[in-house]
Design brief:
This protein is mainly beta and 268 residues long. The protein has one domain. Helix content is 10%, strand content 27%. The chain is built from 2 helices and 11 strands, in the order βαββαββββββββ. Strands 1, 2, 3, 6, 7, 8, 9, 10 and 11 form a 9-stranded mixed sheet that branches. Strands 4-5 form a two-stranded antiparallel ribbon. The radius of gyration is 18 Å and the shape is globular.
Length: 268
Amino acid sequence: MIDMKVTGDSVEERIEKFNSFKDSLPNYVKKGVQINVADNVTALRTREETDGTLHKEWQFTHNLVTSTGDIYYSNKICLKKGDGVTYGDAGAAGVGFAGDGHLFHHPTVNSTANVSNGSTSNALYGAMVLGTATTTPHEANTYGVLGSGASGNTFQSGALDASGAINTTKILNENYPRFSDNDADNTGGYVSGAATGSDQVTWAYSWTKGDFTTGAADLTGGVIVDRATTATAANAAKLLCHFNFASPFEKTANDTLKVFVNHTFEGA
């Protein structure tokens, strides 16, 4: 029997990283709305060393919820339209999440059934995609189109998705999204008794050692996107959120990767 040794950032190092992330944020964003430091991305890369040691390394960054993301959350809370008609996963445009192009929560690991968008029944909807482009998140961006007033590159310009040899596309972990996430690896997420408790929604995605490797290309960020029945998201595919990692990094064949996206709701 071989004893597995696990090393990683100490609690103090993780706290220091999270505090550094908070300190580096500006106090205010567009329209004078203060950034919520609990709206964050927690990334955990676990590397297996040659002697079998597992080394865990955390980093934290901020994520931007798009205008579509705001609409998604309001639709998800109500699940009824203005006329009182149920608004569900399936349905054409104006009828359901699939037809409106923001079925971000489907599929998950334990829910891969086909859903109709009014014309096509398919399971290829929500996913996280990672990439290497230098992009600035903007609330009006889609997968391959810059929103009005945005500048720089599109996310798609460096996306590692089904269109190329490296495909980072990953569906949701089982039983996500959820609130009060109790995964100990989500260091930037829910803390029992803290203000970021049951008002925080967590999305989680996990890659194994064999899922993909980036070679010489460092990962710079990612999106949660609705692929709208296609393996590779189209230019106009809608985004729930967009983020850049605090520090670009490479995923090797010895690494596993977990990415948590935390969204906290606050009174306004």
